[in-house]
Amino acid sequence: MSKVATYLNEHLVGEVITQDAELRRAETDGSVLVSRPEMIVRVANMSDIRKIMRFCSQLAEKGHVLPISVQGYATDDTGAAIGRGITIDMTSHMHHVVGIDPKQRLIHLQSGVSVHAANATLSTHKGLGLPSVSYTDEDGTIDGAFSTA
């Protein structure tokens, strides 16, 4: 494990993955492109994301650029879900419906929630639902659906 991965593993609630099989899985998405990350970070909360961003910003100030990409279920067909450096995995821990307010027609989701799970939750309340997102066929995450809309 690299020094960066070791440091992050010690300071994050989530886990840092450097195993070859996992890195190979994260190097592709729905596109024809391939870009292997140096590590995958399965973030547990927003604090983990802030710590990663702050750490990479401090590295960049010292001239060491460590790119960051965010990946859900990797259904994007443009290569947006892959990259070198750190791949932040949103689906391992940040995949919960936090709450729903049917009167205001609001749903509070973590970004790793699948479109299917969001629609399933909304369907329990009459008249609520998301529009069709055929580009992910409901297999993608809610943040991926918004980012490609």
Could you give the order of the helices and strands?
A: HEHEHEEEEHH
| Strand percent estimate | 15-25%
Which sheet architecture does the biggest sheet show? 4 strands, mixed
Mean of residue pLDDT values: 90
What is the alpha-carbon Rg in Å?
Answer: 17 Å
Spatial ordering of strands, largest sheet: 1-2-4-3
Instruction: Please give the oligomerization state of what you see.
Output: single chain
Indicate the percent of residues in helices: 25-40%
What does the overall shape look like? globular
Distance between the termini: 37 Å
Count of DSSP strands: 6
Unreliable segments of 5+ consecutive residues: none
Individual helix count? 5
Structural class: alpha/beta
Descriptive report:
There is one protein chain. The protein is built from five helices and six strands, in the order H-E-H-E-H-E-E-E-E-H-H. It is of the alpha/beta class and 149 residues long. Strands 1-2-4-3 form a four-stranded mixed beta sheet, covered by helices on one side. A two-stranded antiparallel sheet has the order 5-6. The protein is globular. The relative contact order is 0.15.
Offer a few descriptive terms.
149 residues; alpha/beta; 5 helices
Quick synopsis:
This protein is of the alpha/beta class. The chain has helices at 3-11, 20-25, 46-61, 115-122, 142-148, and strands spanning 15-17, 39-42, 68-71, 86-89, 97-101, 106-109.
